[in-house]
Design brief:
Length: 368
């Protein structure tokens, strides 16, 4: 039985909604751990034509100051303090430098893990969300506030003050599925062994809230207390381990993967990495596409195709590689390559000029 019955918003939905909603209504975005909520700040900045990348970066030409607040680790003095004004014989509220009030620019304040903040800070943040005030100091006109946290059902301590919940827009974010994550991973240069694992094991990105996941050994489950599990975040974090596997050796590599994505996923990914070293390179296939063998193993076929998505950079090489692709006996496996080529922005420029891929798109437009 499916646990969740509330309509969910995708990351794409949220990117469209946040700039429109948040000038007047704070959005509190909730999802299970590791689904990409924090990444929304950089995405929204990019959508609005600015260049936010990480806390501490300043771009004077940006329209907004982007303020990232890691709520659980903040204390009252990190936000502001009441300071004596001896000349006026009064107390005044001074806002912390975190908020860059001296710049005069409107702010985009991102309250990450809001519902794990100390209760006293939640009171301060409630006024920020509702009135666009930090203590007694108003934000510049046009400022926006958004917040994130985990689902209450995740069991990681996320609770909201009752009087605040009805004054904000609380939405649940959909966990990216294997297809959505695979496209993001291709654009962000995640190693093909990781992407192959996800393509072969799509249930590794299922949600415990979907129901029927009792035997899914890969995912986060609130009642299991497991710290290492597969999520969009942990898969991306594992990239540095996979790329340095020759430095660590197979045993240490698998141990570190287990501590990042869980033991079950680490075992399968280790097997894929061992296979990766024995595969023909795409450059060799392009030189002789008619004669280089097509592996029988689907994982090997996928890994070669994902390498091609990453490395092919001209129309002639794609034409030659398509000769090899057409020798792959499974149309389903071929479709993964076609989909990645069409939907990955960098590769799509080549795909648009290839007749075989264009014909596949016409026949399978409902999948795109």
């Amino acid at each position: 039985m499916q646990i969740n019955t509330v309509p969910l918003m995708t990351i794409a939905d949220l990117r469209r909604a946040i700039p429109v909603i948040t000038p007047s209504l704070t959005m509190v975005i909730q999802s299970e751990p590791g689904c990409g909520k924090t990444s929304l700040l950089a995405m929204v900045a990019e959508d609005m034509g600015d260049r936010w990348r990480k806390p501490g970066d300043d771009y004077p030409d940006d329209k907004y100051d982007y303020i990232y607040v890691d709520c659980p680790v903040k204390d009252m003095q990190d936000i502001g303090m009441v300071v004596p004004n001896h000349e006026k014989q009064s107390l005044e509220y001074y806002v912390a430098s975190l908020f860059k009030m001296g710049s005069g620019k409107p702010k985009f304040i991102f309250l990450d893990e809001l519902l794990k903040a100390p209760k006293m800070l939640q009171v301060i943040f409630t006024r920020l969300m509702l009135e666009r005030m930090i203590g007694d100091v108003p934000l510049p006109q046009g400022s926006m506030v958004a917040a994130t946290s985990n689902n209450a059902s995740d069991g990681v301590g996320d609770t909201m003050l009752a009087h605040a919940g009805n004054r904000v827009c609380r939405v649940e974010m959909k966990k990216p599925d294997h297809d959505e994550w695979g496209l993001w991973a291709a654009e962000n240069n995640i190693h093909r062994s990781i992407r192959t694992f996800v393509a072969l094991t799509p249930r590794c990105l299922n949600s415990y809230r979907d129901g029927g996941q009792e035997n899914n050994e890969f995912i986060f489950k609130p009642n299991m207390g497991t710290l290492s599990f597969v999520s969009p975040r942990s898969l991306a974090k594992s990239d540095v381990i996979v790329r340095n596997r020759d430095v660590f050796g197979p045993q240490a590599t698998q141990a570190m993967l287990a501590g990042t994505i869980g033991a079950a996923a680490a075992a399968q990914m280790s097997a894929l990495m061992a296979m990766d070293k024995s595969l023909d390179d795409v450059k060799d296939i392009v030189r002789d596409p008619d004669n280089i063998s097509v592996p029988d193993d689907i994982a090997a076929q996928l890994m070669i195709m994902l390498q091609a998505v990453d490395t092919l950079d001209n129309h002639d090489d794609l034409e030659k590689f398509m000769v090899w692709v057409n020798r792959v006996p499974s149309a389903e496996v071929q479709s993964i390559f076609f989909t990645q080529m069409v939907r990955t922005p960098r590769a799509s420029k080549l795909a648009r000029r290839n007749e075989a891929i264009k014909n596949w798109c016409i026949k399978n437009h409902v999948l795109l």
